[in-house]
Specification:
Helix content: over 70%
Distance between the termini: 37 Å
CATH architecture: Up-down Bundle
Largest sheet: none
CATH superfamily: MFS general substrate transporter like domains
CATH class: Mainly Alpha
Radius of gyration: 21 Å
Length: about 400
């Protein structure tokens, strides 16, 4: 019996398993465009939240990023792929409820938590599966390919979302068809991941016997970089779009088309980032990212102050500059694979990768939860420009942390 299992495992075609995972990733990208990308508009239009409330919403939305560290440890016996199936089902369940029911604000936060738990569980799982499927010599290129597929289908769903809201087929009235379509995409991803496990077995799971909790001093710089990114990311995801939604009154169709443009750039940009990592090393790529986003957040700070005080009325080129800033800001999320590859390069043992990626996400989300609330109060009391000053300072901290990285993967 053991011999048959060994023969069966040897017959697994890695390229076939990777292709199935790429198709599943495509549906994950589609689901993101029909859900996560427009949640800020949902909160504004369905519940009329202000900046301070918007910051508070990030508690149930980001808390799963912390708890996923424990959830995935408890589920480690399932392996990465089967845990990823469960993650997609949780995302589908939470989103479906928001699509067919308009609960009270408090109850909505519960189902937002369920949805977000699925999304956050898949983040380290998706990276870990991709890293397991990649060959070490071309890890950057394979991860770039995976992320490029996700961005391509995020773009497609963004186009469909834009069209849907423009022609009136999508809105946030019940049933919210946009969320129902997103639910179907999450379910399709779970079906494909199930097929991947049946065909590939534990190929993509990494080592079967994994350490459930890993905290090593050798990974301290990675944890620090995750913490810095957590604060900066939350400003990028929450308050950069809030400038457009709250100060400039942009609707879901405009936000969607900006996401489309960002995703279109990402389709070509992600493989380039992967090649840069392979050619120039992690430290140089992370340094370039940090410098670029110092400039982005300084620009956002001045812009938000001028708009908030009424010093300028944006038209023509001014509005084009706003669009450009938002699109470039979205590029920050596309550097997440740099941190994943950095963690893989540090790993003392292969079984450290998944729990360490999950712990890194937990640290990032602890900072994000605190940062959301603090930045909401800062915006409300002192103005949006101070929020972006914080983001610029965090980018500088990321720049400093990157200088100690040794490229050894």
């Amino acid at each position: 019996m053991e011999e048959n299992k060994t023969i069966e495992k040897r017959q697994v075609n890695p390229e076939t398993v990777l292709k199935i995972f790429l198709i599943a990733t495509a549906f994950v990208g589609l689901a993101g465009g029909f859900s996560d990308s427009i949640l800020a508009n949902y909160f504004k239009e369905a519940y009329g939240v202000n900046a301070a409330q918007r910051g508070f919403i990030e508690l149930p939305r980001e808390l799963p990023g912390v708890l996923s560290f424990f959830f995935l440890a408890w589920l480690s016996f399932l392996g990465n792929v089967r845990s990823a199936v469960l993650a997609q089902m949780l995302g589908a369940a939470g989103l479906l409820v928001l699509g067919i029911w308009r609960p009270s604000y408090a109850v909505m936060l519960i189902f937002l938590f369920v949805f977000s738990t699925g999304v956050h569980m898949f983040i380290p799982l998706g990276d870990s599966i991709g890293l397991s499927l990649a060959q070490k010599i071309n890890m950057g290129r394979v991860m770039g390919r995976i992320n490029s597929v996700r961005m391509a289908f995020l773009m497609i769903s963004g186009v469909l979302t834009f069209i849907g809201f423009r022609v009136g087929w999508f809105d946030f009235e019940l049933p919210a068809r946009v969320f129902i379509v997103g639910t179907a995409c999450f379910f399709a991803a779970s079906v494909l991941l199930t097929a991947q496990h049946r065909i590939g077995g534990d190929f993509g799971d990494g080592p079967v016997e994994r350490t459930k909790f890993v905290f090593r001093k050798e990974y301290a710089r990675y944890y620090l970089i995750c913490a810095v990114f957590g604060g900066r990311k939350q400003i990028m995801f929450v308050y950069s779009p809030w400038v457009l939604i709250d100060l400039l009154d942009f609707k879901a169709d405009t936000i969607s088309i900006l996401a489309v443009i960002g995703s279109l750039i990402g389709i070509f940009f992600m493989p380039v980032v992967g090649k840069w990592i392979d050619c120039f090393g992690i430290r140089r790529v992370m340094t370039a990212e940090a410098l670029a986003f110092v400039a982005v957040y300084v620009a956002y700070g001045f812009l938000s102050r001028w708009v908030n005080t009424g010093a300028v009325v944006l038209t023509g080129l001014g509005m084009m500059f706003v669009y450009l800033l938002n699109i470039v800001d979205r590029m920050s999320a596309q550097f997440a694979m740099v941190r994943s590859i950095y963690m893989r390069s540090l790993a003392i043992a292969p079984e450290d990768v998944t729990p360490s990626l999950t712990l890194g996400m937990a640290i990032d989300h602890v900072v994000a939860i605190v940062g959301s609330y603090v930045c909401g109060l800062v915006w409300f009391r002192w103005g949006p420009e101070f929020v972006f000053m914080i983001a610029g300072a965090l980018s500088l901290a990321n720049l400093i942390a990157a200088q100690g990285i040794k490229d050894n993967y």
